[in-house]
Amino acid sequence: MKSGPAHLILQKRDELINSKQKSQVKKKTEVEQKNKNQKSVQHLATTSEGPPTQTTDRDQDVLKERQTTQEQCVLTSKQDCRPRPFDQEAIDFIYVKHRVLQPESGAFDLISPCHEFKSFAVAAALERTRLQAKFAKEVLKFATGCMNVRTNGTIHFGVMDSKEDARHVHGEIIGVPVKDKDIYVDALDYIERSFSSDSDHVRLCVRPPRFIEVMDQESTEKRYVVEVDIVPSISIVKSKVYAVRLPNFKESTNKVEFEKEAILRRVGSKTEPVTDNALSDFYQRVRDRDAQREEADKSQLFSGQDSGQDLGRKLKVLMTSGKKFIEKEKWFILITNKFKLDDLCNIDWLFNMNIFCVFDFDPDSKISGLCSKYLQHHAPNMHSLQSYRMSGDATIKEFTSQLHLFEQTSWIFCNGRTDFKGSDTPCDEMTWIKTKMTFLRESVSLICKQILPKGTFQVIFLLTSPVEKPLLHTFNEFFTDMEGHEDIICICESQENFQKWQSFAEGSCGTETVKNSSVVGMKMSHINATLQQIQPIKTCSKYLPVFVKGACLLETQAEEQMYSLEILTVNHCDETSEDFINEEKKNIEHEFYRGGRVKWLNFWLAENKYVGEVIERDAYRDVSNLLHDALKKNADEPPVKCINIYHHPGSGGSTVARQVLWNNRKDLRCAVVKPSYSVAVVAQHAVELREYEEKDPQRCLPVLLLIEDSDKEYLDDLRNELEVAINIKRIQNGTPCFILLSCRRSYEPEKKCKESPLQNVPVTHKLSAQEKRKFSGKREVLEEQYEYEFILTFVLMSEGFAKDYIKQFVEHLLEGIDHHSVVTCLILYVALLNTYVQNSFISQSHCEKLLGLTIGLERFHQHKFEESLSPQAKLVFLHLRDEKTHIKSIRIIHPLVAKKILQQLLGNQQTQSSLAMKLLCQDVLFEHRFGRDEYLSFLRALFIKRSRISKGDERDSFFSPFIEHVCENEKSPEKAIELLKEAFPRFQKDPFWAQQLARLHYTYEKFEEAKLWAETAAKQLPNNSYILDTKGQVYRKWFQAKCKAIDTGNVPKTPLNTADAVETALKALECFQECEKAANADMENVNNSGFFSEVEVGCSLLKLISSLDVFANKADGHSECMKYLVTDYIPEEVKIAWEPFHGRLKQLNQTMQDALEWISEDLSYFQTDIDAGEEETPESFEEKLSHPLKWLAKKSSEYGKYYSESYCTALLQKGQPIPADLTPFQKRMIIYQLGGGNITSILSKLTDQRNAVHLLQSILSLYPSNPIKAKFGQRDIVNYIVAHISLNSLSPQTQKVAPLKDLQALCRQFPSDKRKCLPSALFLLTLLFWPEDHDTDRDKETKYEIVQSAIVHLEKGYWSKKKDIPQRKRRIYTHFFLGIGNGLDKFVHKKKFESVTEGFSVSEKRMKWFRGEAWKKPEIAKMLKCVSGWTEDGVVYLEGPQKKKFNVFPLHVPSVPHGNENITFYLGFTFRGPVACNIVVKK
């Protein structure tokens, strides 16, 4: 087989090089032709009248390569083609412009027609009389010559004769414009006037003109080749010699005249008159010529008998590439046109095929064609050609996900849809070429060049009706983009329909190739039966278990519509054919034991005794027990439960999880959640699966969902989404609805198990005694059946992946390896990725490019690739195939083996950094398109992804583990910087790479370079708060380094010596303030790092300023420092040196106070106990705080200390009273120093109670004795009141706490316009004005009105603060609960009953409170007041208020009863307003 344009180019290039005899004229014409063709190719890309094509940088490569191929193909080759089948009626045939017919010929065997070409370019433009005379003359001259020598012949008009035009080659198809076909037909009326006798004979032998359309890919002008067949049947011409008078238009007389009568004959490729000398001999040989013709007719009759092809075998071979079955992993692309009704009854074979997409040219297909039939069995997505236009910034992964490619068949209506109300309407051939051709070209190119690699798919042209031009264009696009015809086959029942397609295809591939790859003449019913025999799966209904212990049918359409789930049915894998099992069972088993991922077929084969059992690990039993407990109905249990499997990488955790699903598929509805689908979609499909074919949502089987390698955030969001769905469905409390089986890797699975033994199960490399016995027995059995290399991973696993065993294994493996071979280089690249990037691989097509393999035939593809590998590579490489796309890839059998290979192959001679640099310089890997997104994502992870324990990594890292290895183990930060610099342009100068470079530079105190890289990143993403934070961190670290240099260098701390450091600090503050603005504007992320960093830098700057000689060495130096910072005063010593900074330094007090207040308020709203296992965004701020409350208390105190008088600080340290003559500012600063500067710092004393009572008393002593007359600001009032509430909580008996009424009176100084109130002020209104039991009804109503008014504005502030972030990630924090007491005693802080959840992790404590488990404890009932209310349509209302309903937000939404019920609940106070906890329906 030829391999497409590339093959033709090379072939023609060689011909051109070898040809030495070329004239100067020829060279000149070639240059002209080149210029013309270049214009043509450019024109070809812009013939569409549709919108202009949008191309990305990525697409430019594809278009450039394609254009170059087309140009070269046109310039260096004119493809041969065959003529229209001779003298056949109703043949649908087509010519392609610039293709070349075989040269003109003479009589050969009398039956095969001789050919004569006429360009007719000038004559075709003549008026009717002249044109007819010219046409008749040429036809009758040729016909007479043929008839006289008894040979068949065809004369072609619109085909270049070598004499006519030097720009074209002989036989080149050009075509002529035909305005009126009758002109040519009527021209043959000259027969009667040209032949004096036997004109009726001539009429019978000369066939009417045929008009064969010429297809021109560069133009839409219609042209034809006009052909006349001459058939001198012996019964007509026997014994005759024909003389003709040829018509000729005389310009002098302006009329047609007839030439002298002549007898003509064919001599070679010419028609010549018989000379007078030869005339006698010519007449004498008439009988001989008649005899030859009769003999030729007999021979044709004998050879024409059809012996009958074995079309069934041919069809099987083409569909299976010579294998026994159609490959399960191969995708098929179907191109088809209108189906006949009878054919639609015989397409069952299509329903079991992996159809990637269908290019359907039938506009009625969805109503009455193939699509309508397919929809009865599957759920394809309807698309148009325009659907395959990619936006400039989309990746292939995003595009395939958006169109649901690989999940559902994409049905592409190539010529509109008659049932569609949109703008995609059907059109005629020429309009289609103008308006839709470009879209077709783009869609085919996208599929063949970027989505499906060669060898993973096969294209089937299923021609069921007459072929039109758009279908031929489609073949041309596939042929060009697939670089050959090898994976294209044609199936056509009708020979007539096939002819046109064949004539077009032969020009590209050659007659033999088209013949070999086409099945023509086989009935659709026979095709249907034949192909069903070789399908690996047979038609089989699928069933799901039902609540009443029966089963229901799972329709394929319904299954495909739940595309985010891989649903496990009761009879899963039963559809697999017996022949396929017998053929493939060994391959399936040894692939698993060699390290491949377990398949459902592994369990099925074991269950049906085709192979030995799959070992059940101890963890399987543990998970099964937890699952059994989770299925018990309990009113106090949540409807969605989670079981976590934490496993060492490569220890078999996924096998355990899938084994649990497999063995429960008949009792539960089981499914695997496919990666990369949103929580909302998965939850929707999970609910549909639960309720599928069940009458009552209350009576459904639980759904067991396996979620693999997802982070905690995804799992929590899914659980939350499912709980909301269950709540809406009003499922009865305690009904187990969903069990989420999470399978995540971890380097400390046993530790995870200890944290929550009732929820977590560990799977480790280490085997228990019982497991060792099982593995040992299984190993003996497998070693008898398979070679050692086929069960490699199982052997390592049976040894518990012992380090010594792996070391010996790798040493033995690498003996004699060629260190310089490209295969060894490939092993190293894969080992590097597998060591540092979990689940990484390199696609097989990338490997082939690296190895320089050019593989011709697909059927030898895999064999040739494997043969190219060294013995070592064959042993360690595991061949993978993506379950979704079926794209092949390789990785090393186990990450521990990869790590050891990397160490031993590199040895002491080479470093990992030099290997990585070599990898970065591999142009061939970066430029290869297939799998590029995945390849780049793995490299990105290698260089910039930080490890996180929460993500299952071994430790938390500041840089990627690989970069840290280069910096620390290789002790070469410069190499790490060099690597990232090399990668930066490779990744299109991605700003996040620049960010990493900035971080790496400042870590190693290369601040000038760090500044440049931070600015580079910020220039590209000026509103990204994470990048702006990094920019601030550059200056912060630079400032710290400058301070350190001053301290260690014993440099005098003069204003001049410190000016540089002060300027750097101020620049850092400026950057952090920019970061804060960007973070506040970002509604999708929370990044408070700018505020924290601003405070950190501010404190460090104050420390530097206060330590200056000018301030530190004076008796009143600190006072003077304060005077400088908070008044207009400027000491002489700093006046000139710090001239640019005075204004900004004097603002420092206010900016720091604002930052502290912002942090305090943010921490007041949401949960503040950050779990060490919390997730973090990749661009997260540099130093995440795990204890922000402690940090805030410490920094507030530090800030207050710098702005307080030094003697006051000394008195505080000694526990002595503060003088009364201090200014309000000085007192406020001491309050800050004592920890009373903001509401969060004060409330934190309830959690950290060391010396808290004394501190609170000291804070309150600094306020005026009559605060109402003191005219406080809002913040001072808030802090004063909260200090009283906190002191009362810690020491209820103290006399220093103001009565509730006094505090209520103070609250009346808050602005009457609630929009101007601080959130903390509104919070206090809800707290302090909560009605007392002894209040009158009127007082209660007044207080409720105050509370409700405050709540309205608290809600607004809450939503602004929360942004567009899921509630689970910004969970509201409850500060106090309503207790049984009176006055301030009725406010109970959570700390008082925290002992209820002692011994649990932070996240578990949180969930126990959130889900209501902790509320059931009796010690809580003794402290908290139970209030009454009711629910109405899912909304909770409080009993009490008369004028206006009091809506209370439920802390845990699923706890709200589904009906309208009377309830009781505990009341909590938050910055969103009161919340309801522990909602219980009144009995």
Primary descriptors:
1483 residues; alpha/beta; 7-stranded parallel sheet; 6-stranded mixed sheet; 48% helix; elongated; disordered N terminus
Structure description:
This protein is α/β, with parallel strands linked by helices and 1483 residues long. 48% of the residues lie in helices and 12% in strands. The protein is built from 64 helices and 35 strands. Helix 12 links the parallel strand 11 (331-336) and strand 12. Residues 1-56, 68-76 and 1169-1184 have low confidence and may be disordered.
Write the layout of secondary structure elements.
Elements: H1 5-18, H2 24-44, H3 57-76, E1 94-96, E2 114-118, H4 128-149, E3 153-157, H5 181-187, H6 190-194, H7 199-205, E4 210-215, E5 223-230, H8 234-237, E6 243-244, E7 247-250, E8 255-258, E9 262-267, E10 270-273, H9 276-284, H10 286-303, H11 311-320, E11 331-336, H12 348-351, E12 355-360, H13 365-368, H14 370-374, E13 381-384, H15 396-402, E14 410-413, H16 429-435, H17 437-451, E15 457-463, H18 469-481, E16 488-492, H19 495-509, H20 511-516, E17 518-520, H21 524-533, E18 542-545, E19 551-554, H22 556-561, E20 565-568, H23 578-593, H24 600-607, H25 618-630, E21 640-647, H26 653-664, E22 669-673, H27 679-691, E23 703-708, H28 712-729, E24 738-745, H29 749-755, E25 760-763, H30 769-785, H31 792-798, H32 803-813, H33 822-836, E26 842-843, H34 844-851, H35 861-867, H36 871-876, E27 877-881, E28 888-892, H37 895-906, H38 912-920, H39 923-927, H40 932-944, H41 961-969, H42 973-986, H43 991-1003, H44 1007-1020, H45 1025-1048, H46 1055-1081, H47 1089-1106, H48 1109-1112, H49 1117-1126, H50 1132-1135, H51 1142-1146, H52 1148-1165, ...
Parallel strand pairs: 1-4, 2-3, 11-12, 11-15, 12-14, 13-14, 15-16, 16-17, 21-24, 21-25, 22-23, 23-24, 33-35
Antiparallel strand pairs: 3-5, 4-5, 6-9, 7-8, 9-10, 18-19, 20-22, 26-28, 27-28, 29-30, 29-34, 31-32, 31-34, 32-33, 34-35
